[in-house]
Amino acid sequence: VETWITIVDLGKIGMFSLGGTIIDIISFLGRNFRCRLHYSYLINCPSSIKFLFGMAKKAMTEDQINKIHLQ
After folding, report:
1. Strand runs (DSSP E) across the chain, as ranges?
2. Cβ proximity of 68 and 40 under 8 Å
3. pLDDT tens digits for 2-42?
4. I need a labelling partner for 21 at 20 to 30 A (CA). Which of 10, 47, 56, 58 fits?
5. How far apart are CA 67 and CA 20, in angstroms?
6. Which H helix or E strand runs over 10?
7. What confidence score (pLDDT) does residue 14 get?
8. φ, ψ for residue 45 (rounded to 5)?
9. Cα separation of 10 and 70, whole Å?
10. Mean pLDDT within 50-54
11. What per-residue confidence (pLDDT) applies to 29?
12. How far is the C-alpha of 38 from the C-alpha of 22, rounded, in Å?
């Protein structure tokens, strides 16, 4: 069984392209590597992403929340 750990550096991505970039990454991983995500680390996150993730947690399962780490 394969499990994946992803590391995404958001340090040099502008605010306006940030949403599209994250959606593209999640869509790609979901289509090609379904059910294989073990952990996803998002590093150099802007505070706006941390805020949005806090809101999105309400619609996520505990298992999904535990797989995503913002730094």
Report:
1. 4-9, 37-43, 68-70
2. yes
3. 788 888 888 877 666 666 776 777 778 777 776 777 888 88
4. 58
5. 21
6. none
7. 65
8. -75, 135
9. 10
10. 83
11. 73
12. 17
* Tokens 């680390």, residue located: 41
Question: Token digits for 38?
Answer: 């073990």
List of residues 6+ apart from 36 with CB closer than 8 A: 2, 3, 4
Q: Please state the separation of Cα 35 from the chain's center in Å.
A: 14
Q: Note the residue count of the chain.
A: 71
Whether the CB-CB separation of 51 and 19 falls below 8 Å is answered with no
Q: Please, which residues have CB within 8 angstroms of residue 57's CB and are 6 or more apart in sequence?
A: 65
The set of residues, in sequence order, having a beta carbon less than 8 Å from that of 50 and lying 6+ positions away, is 70
Is residue 71 within 8 Å of 41, Cβ to Cβ? Answer: yes
